[in-house]
Amino acid sequence: MTERIHLSKPDITALEEELVLAALRSGWVAPLGPMVDQFEAEVAERVGVAGALALSSGTAALHLALLDVGARPGRVVLVPSMTFAASANAVVYTGAEPVFVDSDPHDGNVDPDLLIEAVDTVRAEGGDVCAVMTVDLFGRVADHEAIVPALRERGIPLVEDAAEALGAHRGGQAAGSFGRAAALSFNGNKILTTSGGGMLLSNDLDLLARARHLSTQARDAAPWYEHSEIGYNYRLSNLLAALGVAQLSRLDAMIARRREIRNRYAAELPDLPGVGVMGRTAGLDDSDDNHWLTCITLPSGVSPDDVVAELSSENIEARHLWKPMHLQPVHASRRMFRSGASEHLFARGVTLPSGSGLTDDEVGRVIAALRHSVSSRLVGRSGRG
Predict the structure, then answer these.
(1) How far apart are CA 347 and CA 90, in angstroms?
(2) What is the DSSP letter of 276?
(3) Which stretches in the chain have pLDDT values below 50?
(4) Global pTM?
(5) CB within 8 Å of 370: residues ≥ 6 apart
(6) Cα dihedral across residues 346, 366, 263, 48: positive or negative
(7) Pick the CATH number of 14-249 from 3.40.640.10, 3.40.50.1480, 3.30.70.420, 3.30.830.10
(8) Sequence-ordered list of residues with C-beta below 8 angstroms from that of 21, at least 6 positions apart, any chain
(9) How far is Cα 180 from Cα 156, in angstroms, rounded to an integer?
(10) pLDDT tens-digit profile of 166-191?
């Protein structure tokens, strides 16, 4: 059988091996050390924020950011429905209530007009909105040019879930720099990986100092282990930070390769009727995206279930888009400001292999398998007509 093509396999070179081995030999194997300090400083400089805190996951970063803005029982956080579960889970960790908002129909990011309508509606009803969370979906920055001024006018802080978008920009500003605080993820399939990990970003150094305290079990300054409040075990190890430092030095090259892969998909799929590349339909420009994952929408009547299954039979990993949170059983009872866009995208969307380590031949295999899967169903559909 041909070798499996993964959705977004980590792109690891000799440089990563060298730095991780050096960190191991240094004796700094705990969740502290010079590589952690270097990684934090270099990411903060790359994004253009005052500081950064390396953590065990992007979810941990969201949790600490939400605690800073006062998320707690009795308060509300507005969250895009089309996102990974961690965005909503972090809200629930605090005891606050997530209220979901639907997507822009073309790129899947939150609909800014609907978001502000949701904020105003919840507040008019007496709800205590403590924050809005945006998500930079699949490596494309949300429309913060519309969202940030509207929230500032209303005095509502923004928490930016930039987990998927390191290296992306909008209007000359980097993903991770738009909110009071932002979260990055370095999970195994992200554009930059530390195996598992994340980072909290902010221009507020007091916020970061408080988060740093909470992330180390809230240990007080005492000659023994003293704790005046509950904290969390959220710090990133020095070994994993070494991996991150190496990956960060290669980020631009990895983004460039993912862009090449998307360009090829976009060039070779348009003759399939009804297939569109998200971020490039309706006149959209994706040149500032980091191209983490390339997503397509299928023609009506062609099921993502069938396409994903057929590609899997060819040893190719493809996935559905994120299933919207308001359709998840665990959130079925929560409020949703709905336009139907996220449901439509979920019903028609497929995520294609996009890793920077893919060879040209592997991309060709994906295109050939996808063309066969979609075209055979289009022919079958026309035959039934």
Answers:
(1) 26
(2) E
(3) 383-385
(4) 0.96
(5) 269, 307, 311, 352
(6) positive
(7) 3.40.640.10
(8) none
(9) 10
(10) 999 999 999 999 999 999 999 999 99
